[in-house]
Amino acid sequence: MAIFARLTAMDTELTPTDDLDEVERRLAMPLLDAMVTQRAVRRVLPDPVHPRIVRRCIELALEGPTGSNGQNWEFVVVTDRELKERLQVQYRRAWSVYGTAGERLRGGDPQTAKILRSVRWQVDHFTEIPVLVVACLRGGGKLPYVPMPAIAASSHYGSIYPSVQNLLLAARAVGLGASLITLPLWSTTVARRILGLPLSVEPCCIVPLGWPRGRYGPKARKPVDAVIHLERYGARAAAD
Amino acid sequence: MAIFARLTAMDTELTPTDDLDEVERRLAMPLLDAMVTQRAVRRVLPDPVHPRIVRRCIELALEGPTGSNGQNWEFVVVTDRELKERLQVQYRRAWSVYGTAGERLRGGDPQTAKILRSVRWQVDHFTEIPVLVVACLRGGGKLPYVPMPAIAASSHYGSIYPSVQNLLLAARAVGLGASLITLPLWSTTVARRILGLPLSVEPCCIVPLGWPRGRYGPKARKPVDAVIHLERYGARAAAD
After folding, report:
1. Cα separation of B196 and B184, whole Å?
2. Gap between the Cα atoms of A214 and B184, Å rounded
């Protein structure tokens, strides 16, 4: 089993497939490997992704927890070019503000510069990305600019992002490039209009999906002991 | 590989372990099985969980994505009885409001009644749960009751819940009981005081961890086609 895990971890170049049995085999990737090799893959091919594969990844998203088991998610799958164009306009507008700020603030750091280039590619090629999955929440009653206590907001979004992470992990196992973005939704009013969402359904984020142009490369993470606090904030674990 | 996956899916009674090699073997559970068998397990034994296992689960949490790769999570690991007592007081207060409302609204539904009983158990036995992992976010500038656009809030919590889902999936693979709760944090002011968190660090949710009293049972989910919309909200996929 250890050898199996190791081989799978190295198997970072999965080729596109339409074979649904092969998809199931890929979904049996060891959990550890899926997590460790997961990363944002923004540069994807324009080739279509079989709708059954997208459906399967969303099906696994539904296995995540929701508050009081409310199961109040909705997923809009966008492949239509005109809709993608309209979302791209929104993405470009938001990116012209945040991307410019990011370049000014942290563009000197090579790691950040790499991410910024990759997001820039995604903005410019947004209509070529074969599938956009828009993850939404029904209810929760968050109205724009109406205050709610921090924990209610946390609880609310705690019903969608565990599912989104399942979607990202499933995409990784299958070999699809995926990322988690919110900028095209900066105006929820406009996003609702584009996607035909009623006021009771809130668009939370988009996961663009496509077969990767490159491979799932390495990623950098802080050491775990830098973020663990024992009993109270600031108390570090003793090395053992 | 398919047979391997099937065997692991049936293996829903994992015994407590302190053996870190065994933990690594369990973390190689097929992704699909971990997702499909994941569920809230609230009734846990008071027996301690090896700190290295908790650390390993948090290490895998860090593999999740964060906005602009900010890696702005912090995890407070609480095992101290006095701190658990103080969090229990908060949990009980919030539960007396929300739990009572829940019982009145949906207590007639057997599925909901089961969840309510299980949460009630967790409230009453909160100090016996061996480990509470408090997932926090640094920065983000959310001040209590200060409005922010919906998508900024979504983006903010989108940097913690993917990690929390990794933590839950890792716990499931290892055989630990885990759940995702926010009620003990209903007052972030009090929670900050208990955990020694500065104003710049926001407690988002708690994952209680312990070896299960029972087993990972089945869970109910809506059919995927009930939550998928094609291109625009309300357009259902044709059966194929």
Report:
1. 15
2. 44
Which residue of B69, B74, B87, B151 is the best one to mutate when testing the A interface, meaning the one whose CB has the most A CBs within 10 A? Answer: B151
Q: Which 8-state DSSP code applies to residue B225?
A: G
Any A CB within 8 A of B51 CB: yes
| Cα B171 to Cα B9: distance, rounded to the nearest angstrom | 15
Give the SS3 label for residue A32. helix
User: Global pTM?
Assistant: 0.92
Q: How far is CA A188 from CA A33, A194, A209, B155, in A?
A: 35, 10, 21, 13
Q: How far apart are CA B230 and CA A148, in angstroms?
A: 32
Q: How far apart are CA B206 and CA B32, in angstroms?
A: 25
Write out the two tokens for A80.
Answer: 């239509």
Cα maximum dimension of chain A: 57
DSSP, res A126: G
ipTM of the complex, rounded to two decimals? 0.92
User: Looking at the complex, does the CB of residue B221 fall below 8 Å from at least one CB of chain A?
Assistant: yes
Please report, in tens digits, the pLDDT of each residue of chain A (240 residues total): 333 333 343 445 679 999 999 999 999 999 999 999 999 999 999 999 999 999 999 999 999 999 988 999 999 999 999 999 999 999 999 999 887 777 777 767 888 888 889 999 999 999 999 999 999 999 865 544 555 677 888 999 999 999 999 999 999 999 999 999 999 999 999 999 999 999 999 999 999 999 999 777 788 899 999 999 999 999 886 544
Say whether A186 sits in a helix, a strand or coil.
coil
